[in-house]
Amino acid sequence: MDVLYVLIPLSVVLVFFVLGALGWAIYRGQFEDVEREGQRILEDD
């Protein structure tokens, strides 16, 4: 039962970290043009 006192705050911190990373990626424009990146892989240079 004592392990819950560690796991619950740790999971909350992990959720905030994941949401922060997702927000940072959206803010930096990582998801702006997803179709172009898929086509770029298939193009022959």
TrEMBL record:
Keywords per UniProt: Membrane, Transmembrane, Transmembrane helix
Species assigned in the record: Ottowia pentelensis
Gene: ccoS
Source superkingdom: Bacteria
Pfam short name (any one): FixS
Residue intervals passing through the bilayer: 6-27
Keyword Zinc-finger: no
Keyword Transmembrane helix: yes
Stated name of the protein: Cbb3-type cytochrome oxidase assembly protein CcoS
